[in-house]
Amino acid sequence: MDLGMIGLGRMGAGMALRLRRGGHRVVGYDPDVHAAAQATAQGIETVDTLDALVAALAPPRALWLMVPAGAAVESTLEVLHPLLAAGDTVIEGGNSHYADSQRRAAALAEDGIGWLDVGTSGGIRGIDAGYSMTLGGEAALVERLQPLFATLAPSAARGWGRVGPAGAGHYAKMVHNGIEYGLMQAFAEGFAILHHKQEFDFDLAALADIWREGSVIRSWLLDLSAEALHRNPALAGIAPQVADSGEGRWTVAEAIALDVPAPVITHALIARLRSRDGDAFGDRLLASLRGAFGGHGVPQRGETDP
């Protein structure tokens, strides 16, 4: 099949290459000339404008957006929508909010343009291992474009599927990322406990390797933990600050709206926010309060409370 790939960063370029290996024709576009040049160097056919991208594809066209959620998706669709015709399909594979996907699907449908929101997971290793994909949109569109998803997935029949109407694919991916927050936090806390038990002087990388085989907690995240600990056992030079791209916040907000208790995911989100508080005003107030009511010494910067 023919596909237009909009966004040739690490994920977009990797997906384009996997599709090309599977026998599909992919034409790529990225407003970043350096990203486009790198994709061209890898053998991906590229064009310089969205107009040229649409012109390079025979109708009914399929165009896949792999650009950052939010303003980048919105601005791209503002330019792309008028260029498309009835029967074309837009696939959005980023981490957009599901309500935005529902709105965009409705706007495109007014002109007979199809929409699929695809919660895509797999990271930079997906090019070889395949991508997990949850699809939201009309079943007929999924069926027509099935060869693309079958090629991108770990196997033709596994790791992907339609999960509901427009918005459902991104909603499922939102919750997936919330779960991911909790799992990552559990690994981080567990290895921190082991690290601080100096009596046993654990080799954390070796311990992680043991758990990778047969253990109940074996997983790709554990594999990545082991690799990180082998590469840098003391994690030297890595700042203890963890970013979040929004999905964890949305998951917690949905849990609250639905009256569903989600303490693990919520705690993991709060831990990420806390990691970025270089000022730690709240902790400094706690220290001051402890000193005020209990007579404890209040540590100053660079000192430790006795």
From TrEMBL:
This is Decarboxylating 6-phosphogluconate dehydrogenase. Residues 169-304 form the 6-phosphogluconate dehydrogenase C-terminal domain. The gene is gnd. It holds the Pfam family 6PGD. Belongs to the 6-phosphogluconate dehydrogenase family. Pathway: Carbohydrate degradation; pentose phosphate pathway. Keywords: Gluconate utilization, Oxidoreductase. NCBIfam families: gnd_rel (TIGR00872), PRK09599.1 (NF007161). InterPro entries: 3-OH-isobutyrate_DH-rel_CS, 6-PGluconate_DH-like_C_sf, 6DGDH_YqeC, 6PGD_dom2, 6PGDH_C, 6PGDH_NADP-bd, NAD(P)-bd_dom_sf, Pgluconate_DH. GO terms for biological process: D-gluconate metabolic process; organic acid catabolic process; pentose-phosphate shunt. PANTHER family: 6-PHOSPHOGLUCONATE DEHYDROGENASE. GO terms for molecular function: NADP binding; phosphogluconate dehydrogenase (decarboxylating) activity. It comes from the Bacteria.
